[in-house]
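Session log. Operator J.P. requested a structure for one protein chain; no other inputs attached. Running the standard single-chain path with token output.
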Amino acid sequence: MKKVAFQGWKNCVELKSGDFKLIVTTDVGPRVMGGFVGRNKHNIFHVDKDLAGTSGAKEWVNYGGHRLWHSPEIKPRTYAPDNSKAAVKENKDGSVAFSAGREKTTGITKTLILTPLGGNRFKVEHILRNDNPWEIEVAAWAITVMAPGGVAVAPQNRAPFALLPNTFYSFWPYTEMNDPRYTFGRDFLLVRQDSKKAPCKLGFNCENGWLSYINKGTVFTKTFEHFIDAEYPDNGCSIEIYTNEKMLEAETLSPLYQLGPGEEILHVEEWCAADGAPEIKTEKDAAKFFAR
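Structure written below.
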């Protein structure tokens, strides 16, 4: 663990796993604001240039980077401000925990724990704890805001001889079904970020448990466990992809849980990043690359 400054935030922590480096700010959030692979100088995550280095806003703002939210999305609960300082704790096992404590408006405590695993991999633990004196229904929602110009790739649920449907898509009201940013292929779903396009969003029950983003020769992949028989938010979504003219959000979700006072949700992602990825334009490109 190394203390650094980043994008105007003076109190940040740098973690490394092989050639993969993450930077977490503790001035707000906590949020993972920087992701760099090898000698590349481009940040794989999007940082809003107008908000970089700021803190203390009275309302929630999207700085970018990676954050932990609670689902289903509803105002004001989901949009609890995360604009104050977060505490950091280095553990004996090499993991580092970040938390800003109990949210005043929701009674929920969010914690991120990052563990370098070697080989350009990190374990990222997302913990929601119910610190209210009553029960709540909630899911953990891990949202990674990716830099513009790339394409998200997710595996379709394949069952060639199934008699019943096995994939359930959710589309948000502002999404157009004929949007050219989408490719619904036999084996893969592709969603492209386009700086000239309005917002769109979709999600589905990703049984294979991974979601990638390829941009400027770098591939970033999040893997997670999908529970077949569990109830997920938003009509069954374990992944969701949102994009607008600035960025793309690669999102995974835990199942919905009824949390009693003091109970927690643990949602785990494993991150991996590497150079040498080709440009992905078609499903054929994706199939060739991910078959390696």
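Operator note: The mean pLDDT is 96.
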